[in-house]
Write a structure and sequence with these properties.
By secondary structure, the chain is α/β, with parallel strands linked by helices. The protein has 8 helices and 12 strands.
Amino acid sequence: MKPTILIVEDEKEIAQLVRNMLETEGFICETLSNGADALRVITMLQPDLVILDLMLPGLDGLEVCSRIRQQSLAKDPYILMLTARAEELDRIIGLTTGADDYLTKPFSPRELIARVRALLRRSLRGEQSDHLLYRTGSFTVDVEHHIAQRHLSGQEAEMLDLTSLEFKLLQTFLSYPGRAWSRTQLIDNLWGNDFFGDDRVVDTQVARLRKKIEVNPTQPQFIKTIQGVGYKFEDGPC
């Protein structure tokens, strides 16, 4: 099936330009001009990707992005944010609210298409099964059945509700407990050569995973930050 893309952009000329480019490439597109409508439609539409303008009327793009990530959706869509601002602070804020990539206006059609295709290929990778099972003292990841469990001492095992990227990241950590991973290594393992954008997207995914697997995400027990290197997963043997 062709991927579905939701374009949320209040400038009609830009919205139509983006839609025309993507439909020419074979994607199914819907356009909306404000964030409130996007939040109402997204549950019904279940898009594979959301192209989201930062400066929207009413709810801005950052707020819309944050609310999308808080919803329980059958699909966890990738989010590509568009903005006329190029300040580093905006890039950091955009990624920490759950955006997967960031594109500054004006942009070339070729770059937009390349980034859209790269994001959608990430999704395909997340759906592949390696028929593997990983276990540590507190976690089990069944790759074939896409099941992740946490089993803390003295407690019943609990299912973890993870997105495809979070699942892949936990699988990566469990595959080599105790190994220090740089951001570049994690990007290569999760997205390969298809990655476009800021390596801070790794920090975003790690923060989201911590919220779901750590007892206290502010004092992580399992995913440790290694200053100047990246991250390391620590857990005893099963």
